[in-house]
Amino acid sequence: MLIKILLIGLLLVIIVNLFKALPIMLKGQSSRPMSHYLGWRIGLSVVVFGLIVIALLTGVITPNPRPY
Fold first, then answer.
1. How many whole angstroms separate alpha carbon 35 and alpha carbon 2?
2. Rg of the chain over all Cα atoms, to the nearest angstrom
3. Are the C-beta atoms of residues 55 and 61 closer than 8 Å to each other?
C-alpha cells in the first residue's frame, strides 16, 4: 500500500511541475528556465518507472494476467 501512495504522490508532483512550466512556455519570461521544471519531470518519471519495475520484481504489485 505504501508503494502505491508513493507512486501516486510522485505522479502528482510530476503534474505540478508540468503546470509550473506552462506559464514559462507561454510567456517566455521567468527567473528559472523551463528546462528546470521539465528536467525535474524527467527525473521523477525515471524514479517512478524504477519503482514500478522494482515493485513488480519483488511481487509488491502484480500485473494484469489477461490484458483483454
1. 31
2. 16
3. yes
Residue of 49, 48, 39, 46 whose CA lies nearest to 18: 39
Q: Cα–chain-centroid distance for residue 37?
A: 12
Task: Retrieve residue 15's grid coordinates.
Answer: 503534474
pLDDT value of position 11: 94
pTM: 0.78
d(CA 50, CA 44): 10
Q: What is the pLDDT of residues 4-25, one digit of tens each?
A: 899 999 999 999 988 888 888 8
Helices 34-58 + 2-27 axis angle, to 10: 160
DSSP 59: T
* CA–CA separation, 41 and 51 (whole Å): 15
